[in-house]
Amino acid sequence: MLTNEDLGAVLDYPHAIDALYGSLAAFAAGEAARRPRVDVLAPAGTAGEYARFTTADGVVSGGYYALRVKPEVIHWPVVDGARRLSAYYSTPGHYGGFVLLFRTSDAALVAIIQDGHLRYVRTSALAGLGARYLARPDSAVLGMLGAGGFARSYARALATVLPLTRIKVYCPTPEHVEAYCAELRADGLPAEPATGPEEALDGADVVSTCTNSLPPVLFGEHLRPGMFVCNVSNRELHASARERITTVGHLAEQPTPLNLGGYQDDNFAIHLNTMCYVAGREEERAAIPRGGGAGAPFAGRHVACVDWMSGTPLGRTTDDEITFLSDLAGGGAQGLSSGGLQGVELAGLAGRAYELAAAAGLGTELPDELFLQKD
Fold first, then answer.
1. Mind giving me the DSSP string for 144-167?
2. Which of 126, 247, 257, 276 is the most buried (most CB within 10 A)?
3. What whole-number distance in Å separates Cα of residue 64 and Cα of residue 286?
4. Residue 168: helix, strand or coil by DSSP?
5. Strands 141-145 and 166-170: what pairing?
6. Do residues 200 and 143 make contact, with C-beta atoms less than 8 angstroms apart?
7. Which residues, including other chains, have CB under 8 Å from residue 374's CB and lie 6 or more apart?
8. Residue 104 gets which letter from DSSP?
């Protein structure tokens, strides 16, 4: 059993970025596979709240299989005039996700991992990996919209691969910005508050949106030539921003869709950019924000970020491009959360975290007898 504290002691961003590169290279070579993220929802005990159970899994040949389960209660309060996604596990202020990690050599369960640290590191390390191929190498100023957990981890990952000298951050809650800047400065990162999104993004080489806002927060007028853009959710990007992006860099290609000969699933719907199965009365189902995630198309050219076999960068070719990271061509490029490679990424990242923690003697050992059953 590995806790967030165990992983935090050994899994840094250089290790995480390297692990993700390995798992994505395996996917490109046909040596990894995943099932997409799927959410199952039902009304919770409080009106307007829903229990959401998220799963994603993936495998890397010769390595590990990872299954992520994230249980939570979600709702959508209006904060500072904008509707936002809020989530908790069991009671507000708690998080309950975990990863089951199995060895492929004998299918044995080797670790049960709290995934609070993993979820931040995985997503932000992808942004760091994308910045390696899509940002200008001399990018020094990061403009950050958002001051929560992902905004912190994105800044740390981007600072791992770029020579950042300023991190300008804005969110509508000043005390959150103050806490954000204090924490990053304690880590030696040059964070400073901004009074609004325009000030945060003025002069930025890299733009990062890490918010829980349902309406867009990044608009076309915020972007200028030479910027690299990364985000948590494509719903953060207004159509005008999508139109101004000149180059969309993909970390992987969408496999050829399988023709299932007319197979249908009547209970399936897209909610919050994710494949969902929803229980409840008709009016309860209708109350969950829908949205297919596609939104306005990206007007720019679509390219691979890197040649995985050689490591040759393929993304940015000129200094004046406005580049954007999308982890998967096709569904991922259109912003559907279920279109990404979370399962493959988790198999590589959780596997690396387990090996580092085991080598350091961390974790609580559980007896094999708890998990072995007679045939």
1. EE--SHHHHHHHHHHHHHS---EE
2. 126
3. 39
4. strand
5. parallel
6. yes
7. none
8. T
Complete DSSP assignment for 192-206:
EE-SSHHHHHTT-SE
DSSP readout, 38-49? EEEEEE-SSTT-
Buried b (16+ CB within 10 A) or exposed e, 319-328: eebbbbbbbb
Radius of gyration of the chain (CA): 20
Q: Please name the residues in contact with 110: beta carbons below 8 A apart, sequence gap of 6 or more.
A: 64, 101, 102, 103, 354
pLDDT digits (tens, 9 = 90+) for 229-279: 999 888 889 999 999 999 999 888 766 666 677 777 777 888 877 889 999
CA distance 302 to 148: 30
**What b-and-e string marks burial along 35-46, b requiring 16 or more CB atoms within 10 Å of the CB?**
ebbbbebebeee
Query: For residue 180, what are the CA distances in angstroms to 14, 176, 327, 332?
Result: 22, 6, 27, 29
Whole-structure pTM over 0.85, yes or no? yes
Who's near 231: CB < 8 A, 6+ residues apart? 208, 209, 210, 218, 237
Eight-class DSSP state of 15: H
Say whether 289 sits in a helix, a strand or coil.
Answer: coil
Q: What is the largest CA-CA distance in the chain?
A: 64
Measured between alpha carbons, how far is 184 from 154 in angstroms, rounded to an integer?
11
In three-state secondary structure terms, 66 is strand
70-95 burial: b if 16+ Cβ within 10 Å, else e: bbbbbbbeeeeeeeebeeeeeeeeeb
Cβ–Cβ under 8 Å, residues 192 and 159:
no
Q: Quote the strand ranges of 211-339, DSSP E.
A: 228-231, 247-250, 268-271, 274-278, 301-304, 306-307, 312-313, 323-326
Q: How confident is the model over 297-342, as pLDDT tens digits? A: 677 888 999 999 898 999 899 999 999 988 654 444 345 666 688 9
**Cβ–Cβ under 8 Å, residues 305 and 250:** yes
